[in-house]
TrEMBL record:
Its EC number is 2.1.1.193. Residues 73-234 form the Ribosomal RNA small subunit methyltransferase E methyltransferase domain. InterPro entries: Alpha/beta_knot_MTases, PUA-like_sf, RsmE, RsmE_MTase_dom, RsmE_PUA-like, tRNA_m1G_MTases_N. PANTHER family: 16S RRNA (URACIL(1498)-N(3))-METHYLTRANSFERASE, RIBOSOMAL RNA SMALL SUBUNIT METHYLTRANSFERASE E. Residues 20-53 form the Ribosomal RNA small subunit methyltransferase E PUA-like domain. It is an enzyme of class 2 (transferase). It holds the Pfam family PUA_4. GO terms for biological process: methylation. This is Ribosomal RNA small subunit methyltransferase E. Specifically methylates the N3 position of the uracil ring of uridine 1498 (m3U1498) in 16S rRNA. Acts on the fully assembled 30S ribosomal subunit. The keyword NADP does not apply. Keywords: Cytoplasm, Methyltransferase, rRNA processing, S-adenosyl-L-methionine, Transferase.
Length: 240
């Protein structure tokens, strides 16, 4: 498999470019690519560019071939609204959600979230999750990187206008996820934290027009629930 790399600057149509230092380090020092090896670059603007690596001392360059208009995005615009989870669970959630095709991720602070982040710590963590999303795109073949939004409170998120459908996983709901009506636009999927949504949060979701859905009689962990729901939605309305 040819190694794929996200290039944070727009790629020209042809010619040779110098690779950013971080990209070059990952290619040569981590993946042990050598001079003359093939690679694929993408800049997030759509499509990908086959290239050939050139190592000249401590600098790396790439000779670009013709851009290929390859898209691997799902026809279902799906936003994962994930309550903050502790430990490295958020990394795993972001990685797998991107692999499964979400178009964006919104981390929210819930009442029962064990993880509490604010200020500089919150900004750094979001920056880290964005890099996790980049790596997941490199691995999965996606050429557009989903944005990880700044951490927000649930009620602040619910107050934002939305033209599509909002679904919240609710253990008390009587509607199965796959029995929900097919959306005309984007889907925002809300997943609670380790302790679940509070009664007040579920009430706020309902007041904001969120449809409550269930994944069945079994209780899933927060890091499992969203991924399972995304896979089910992709199989039903997406491209699985």
């Amino acid at each position: 498999m040819i190694s794929r790399f996200f290039c944070p600057v727009p790629l020209p149509r042809a010619g040779e470019i110098q690779l950013p230092e971080a990209l070059a380090h990952h290619a040569v020092r981590v993946l042990r690519l050598r001079d003359g090896d093939p690679l694929i670059l993408f800049d997030g603007g759509g499509g990908e560019v086959p290239a050939v690596l050139h190592v000249r001392g401590k600098q790396c360059f790439a000779t670009l071939a013709e851009r290929r208009d390859v898209e691997r995005e799902s026809p279902l615009p799906l936003v994962l609204v994930q309550a903050l989870a502790s430990g490295d669970k958020m990394d795993w959630i972001v990685q797998k959600a991107v692999e499964l095709g979400v178009s964006a991720l919104v981390p929210v602070q819930a009442e029962r979230s064990v993880l509490r982040l604010a200020g500089e710590r919150a900004a750094k963590r979001v920056e880290h999750w964005q890099q996790v999303a980049v790596s997941a795109c490199e691995q999965s073949g996606r050429n557009r990187v989903p944005a990880v939004a700044p951490i927000t409170g649930l009620r602040d998120f619910l107050a934002r206008p939305h033209d599509g459908v909002r679904l919240v996983l609710d253990p008390t709901a009587t509607t199965r996820l796959l029995d929900a009506e097919r959306p005309a636009g984007a889907v925002q999927l809300l997943i609670g934290p380790e302790g679940g949504w509070s009664d007040e949060e579920l009430a706020a979701c309902r007041s904001a027009g969120c449809g409550g859905v269930t994944l069945g009689p079994r209780v899933l962990r927060t890091e499992t629930a969203g991924i399972a729901a995304i896979a089910a939605l992709q199989a039903t309305w997406g491209d699985f």
